Amino acid sequence: MNRLQPRRWKPSRQYEPSSWLSRPVVGLALIIGSTLGILCVSFFGPSAVTLSLGPRYGSLLPPWYIPSTWNIALGDWTAVMGTYLCIMLGAVGMWILIRALAAGWRPVPKKLLWLGIALQVSVSLVTPMTSADVMMYAAYGRLQVLGRDPYEITVGEIFRTQFDTVLRWTEHPWQDTPSVYGPIVSASQMLANQLGGTSMHDVVFWLQMMCLVPMLLIGIMAYRMAAGNSLLQSRVAIFTLVNPAMLWAVTAQAHNEAFAVMFAFAAIAAMRRRPWLAGLLIGLAGATKVNMVLFGLAILWAYRREPKKLAVIVGAAAVPLAICYGLWQPAALISAARNTTYVNAGAWAGPVFGLLTHQGLSWNISKIIINSIAIVAWGVVAAMLFRLLEVRPLPGIADHVLDPMKDPTSVAVRTAVVLYASWLVTTPNSFSWYDLMAWTPLAIAAASRLDGLMLWRTTWLSAAFVTARAIEYGPVIGLIGARIRDTACVIAQALVLVAIVWWYVQSRRQARRAASG
Questions:
Q1: In this model, does residue 41 exceed pLDDT 70?
Q2: Would you tell me how many other CB atoms lie within 10 Å of the CB of residue 338?
Q3: 142 neighbors 167 (Cβ within 8 angstroms)
Q4: What is the DSSP letter of 21?
Q5: What mean pLDDT is reported for the chain?
Q6: How far apart are the first and last CA of the chain?
Q7: CA-CA distances (angstroms) from residue 409 to 239, 271, 334?
Q8: SS3 129
Q9: Of the four, 26, 120, 309, 392, which is 20 to 30 A from 138 by CA?
C-alpha cells in the first residue's frame, strides 16, 4: 500500500470542542442562519441591496419575491444592515467550521455535501443582490439577439435611442462599457435571452441557473477528486458548497465566474487520465474568461518534466482558443484587456491611486505605476506562498509514486492556489466573486493559514460592495458604505499582505532554528 495514500477517516462522535468557537453545530447554525437572512432580505423584493428586475409578466419562474403591490419593501437601514449582519454571521460560522476540522471534528461528508447543495439552490431562487452585473450580462445577450456586437457597441447607445424591455432595467456604471467577457460567456448570455424572451426577470433566472449549475458541478467534481479521504471530502464540501463567502459573493449575485472556473477545474480533474481532455477544457476556460489562464499555467507547470503530455495539453488547448478568439470573436480578446486598467476602491491601490493623481500625475501614468507595483508584489507574494504551502498528495496517486511532487494533479492544485491567491491579494482590481478562483483549488489543497486569510479577505470585500450600486442611498447609509469600502476594506486587504509576509518570516526563522539545532 502506498504509504502516502491518505487514510480513510471515519465520522467521529468523540469530538469535544474546547469552546463555542470550535463547536461545529454553532458554525453550521450561523451559516444556515446567514443564508436564511439573505433569502429573507431578497424575498422582500427590490430594495437598496436587492435588484429590481422589472415586471414578471405573469411568469411563474424564479426569482421569487413579494409583489410590490403589497407595499412591504424593506427600508435602506433594514436591508443594508441586515445584509452586513448576514455576511458577518456567515464568516464567523465558516471560521468555526475550519477550526473544528483542524481540531479533530470528523463529520459525515455526504451530509455536508447535501447541505451545501440545498443552500446553493435556495439562494438561486430569489433575486440577485447588491451587484447589478447580472443585468449587464442580460443586456449583452440582448444586444446579440438584436443583431448587435456587444464588443463594439454599448448598451447605453441602444436604450437611449429606442425602448427595450430588457435593456431599460440595466444600471450604471457599466451601461457605456462594451462587454469584456470571452466568447463562451457571450454565447451563454445570448442563450439566456433566447430562453427568457423579452422579460429581464426571466432572462436573469436563466443566468442564475448558469451560475448555480457550474457551482454545483465544481463542488461535486472536487468531492469526487477527494474520494477515499473523508476528511478531505468534508473540507471540500465546506469550502465549495457550504462556504457562505462564496454563497454570497458568487451564487447570490449570479456572477459568471462559476461558469469559467467550472471548465478550468474540470481540466485539473481530467489531468490524471486524459491529458488531451485537460488541454481542451482549459482552452474552453480561457475562451470563457481570460483570467483562467493561471489555471492553465498551473497545469503546464505540473507537466514541465513530461514534454509529450505537455505538448498534448498545449495543442488541445490551442484549438478552442484559436476558434473562439481567432475565428469567432477576435474583438473579445482586445476587449478583455480593458479589465487590466481598472482600479478598485476596495483594494490597496485605491488610496495609492488617489495620492498619485493628487500629486498631479495623469490617470494613465498613475495606473501604469500602480500596475507595475502590483506585478512586482505578485511575484514576491507568489514566491513566498510557494515556500509556505505544501503539496497535498491527492487520493488516487499510483502506488509507485512516493513523492507527491511527482503527481501532476497534486502539483497543479497547489500551483493554482499559489498563483491565484497571490494575484488576488496584489491586483489593483479585485472583487469578492473573483475569489472563487482561489477557493476552488484551495478546497483540495493542504490546510494552512491561507484558509483563514482568504476568509478574512473575501468577507471584507463582500461587505465593501453591499452599497456599491449606482443608486441613491440615504446620506448616513451611503457614508457607512463608503467608509467600509474605501477605508476598512483597504486596511483589511493590506493586513492580508502583512500577514503573508509575517508568516513567511516566521517560517524562515523556524527553518533556520531546525537547521542549526
A1: yes
A2: 12
A3: yes
A4: G
A5: 92
A6: 34
A7: 19, 6, 32
A8: strand
A9: 120
Side chain identity, residue 493: Q
Mean local confidence (pLDDT), 357-379: 93
Q: Which tops the pLDDT comparison, 190 or 273?
A: 190
pTM above 0.85, yes or no: yes
Burial of 127 (0-12, 13-18, 19+ CB in 10 A): buried
- State the burial class of residue 400 (Cβ atoms within 10 Å of its Cβ: 0-12, 13-18, 19+): exposed
Q: Give the start-to-end residue ranges of the domains of the chain.
A: 17-255, 256-340, 343-428+430-517
Distance (Å, rounded) from C-alpha 500 to C-alpha 512?
A: 19
DSSP 381-409: HHHHHHHHPPPP--TT--TT---GGG-HH
328 alpha-carbon distance from chain centroid: 27
Q: What is the DSSP letter of 255?
A: -
Task: Tell me how far the alpha carbon of residue 383 is from its chain's centroid.
Answer: 23
Give the residue-averaged pLDDT of 374-392.
96
Contacts of 339 (CB under 8 A, 6+ apart): 180, 290, 291, 429
CA–CA gap between residue 96 and residue 123 (Å, rounded): 22
Residue reference for cell 415586471 = 55
